[in-house]
Design a protein that fits this description.
295 residues, alpha/beta, 2 domains, seven-stranded mixed β-sheet, 12 helices
């Protein structure tokens, strides 16, 4: 067997016309030890699609072509340091759409896609007032608005910079969502028909076991809660939205920590919520809870 000479990162930086097959192979060599083969291929697909405009099928069909990939070297160095590809590109995919992300927003997760799909399945009313608490990049609110254009949707967040990114995403997707600065821990939510939230829910003690690419690159404010009060945000949201509610019914749709399903059911019951439903994600983990307050 004849082995081709090994090409280093320095070679990549100095040679601008290499075969696409080289870039694809080099990407996997670097990414697989960090992420595993499946995730490495997913990262590579997003990377090449955004930088080169090539789908996975295009990459296979064009692998023997010589191409310019000027960003490859710097991107590769950033990936080797553990930076998420979405933050390197400034783009994340969510339910088939592109969303701008940055250091002030979480990178959207597949579990959150499942939450949106479940909401769309359960709520088919033509008219609904919705608030997305802790909206971040706005991906939940915008995805809902795209599928339910007659809903009135607001996204609230304590981080003003995240709200600017969310508004940029709404403009990009040509939808109208009102983004408002609000601290869910101290301020009262306005009355609506449906409150959706993927709030911070990871106990701080889990910092020790989490991947560095998350700890070092994503906003801790949007991730972590005190060890002794992991349901803090859910409790505050429920307190704010049920205390003086005059609405006939208020529905809730929460993404939750996989280890706190039973505790979340108990919390909902303590606020006299009805129709409490705990649902699993595609990995078989407790991930969503739905409930209703009122008659």
């Amino acid at each position: 067997m004849i082995h081709s000479p090994k090409v280093t990162s320095r070679d990549v930086n100095s040679r601008t016309m290499l075969k696409l097959s080289f870039y694809r192979q080099k990407a996997l060599e670097v990414l697989t030890p960090l992420y595993g083969e499946r995730e490495a291929k997913s990262i590579r697909s997003l990377w090449f699609q955004e930088r080169l405009g090539l789908s996975p099928v295009d990459c296979v069909l064009s692998e023997n072509e010589h191409i310019d990939f000027d960003e490859f070297h710097n991107d590769l160095l950033a990936l080797e340091k553990g930076q998420p590809i979405q933050l390197i590109l400034g783009i994340a995919h969510f339910l088939g759409g592109d969303f701008f992300v940055d250091e002030n927003t979480l990178v959207p997760r597949p579990e959150t896609e499942e939450l949106v799909l479940a909401i769309l399945q359960k709520f088919k009313q033509k008219s609904l007032r919705v608030t997305d608490v802790g909206t971040g990049s706005g991906c939940i609110a915008i995805a809902l608005k795209k599928e339910r254009p007659y809903w009135t949707i607001k996204g609230v967040d304590v981080n003003e910079y995240a709200l600017k990114t969310a508004q940029k995403n709404a403009n990009h997707h040509s939808v109208k969502v009102d983004f408002i600065r609000l601290d869910a821990l101290t301020e009262t939510l306005q009355e609506v028909d449906l409150i959706v939230s993927n709030p911070p829910y990871i106990p701080e003690r889990e910092l020790e076991t989490m991947q560095n690419l998350v700890i070092d690159n994503e906003p801790h404010l949007a991730l972590f809660v005190p060890n002794d009060d992991p349901l803090l945000f859910y409790r505050k949201i429920l307190e704010s939205s049920t205390k003086n509610s005059e609405s006939e019914s208020v529905y809730f749709a929460f993404e939750i920590h996989e280890n706190y399903g039973d505790e979340m059911k108990q919390l909902c019951a303590s606020f006299q919520l009805k129709e409490i439903t705990l649902e699993k994600d595609l990995q078989g983990k407790d991930r969503m809870i739905f409930a209703r307050h009122g008659n």
